[in-house]
Design brief:
This protein is an alpha+beta fold. It has 2 domains: about 10-90, CBS-domain; about 90-130. It has helices at about 25-35, 40-45, 60-70, 90-105, 110-125; strands at about 10-15, 15-20, 75-80, 80-85. A hairpin with a 2-residue loop joins strand 1 and strand 2.
Length: about 130
Amino acid sequence: MKEAKVGCIVVLEMERPVGIFTERDLVREVAERGVEVLNRQMDKVMSRPLATILPKASVWDAIALMGRLGIRRLPVVEKGKLVGILTERDIFRLILSQQHLLLESVSESMPAATREQFRGAVGLFGPEKLP
């Protein structure tokens, strides 16, 4: 996870996603069992059952599912194959970029002086400011 700079690993069994191991799982396992947990098999420490979503599901469906289950990462699965992972950060960036576009669109109907002030305020929170 460190080398790949990712926050989770989806565990596959016969090419089908069956579980997920996240940074949160790692912290919990080490806190409960100590560093020797690092030698355990993945199927002993991964979270399951695995919650997934279809690629054609809406972002709102994903938000609702993630909120209901209290998860931060949601594997996207199609025909039993992992095709991606949707994260809280992905959703946050999407919402902010859409909000930024909406605010820019609204600002076009304002007088020029007001528009420049508005753009300055929007720039403080625009998508380019995200980590």
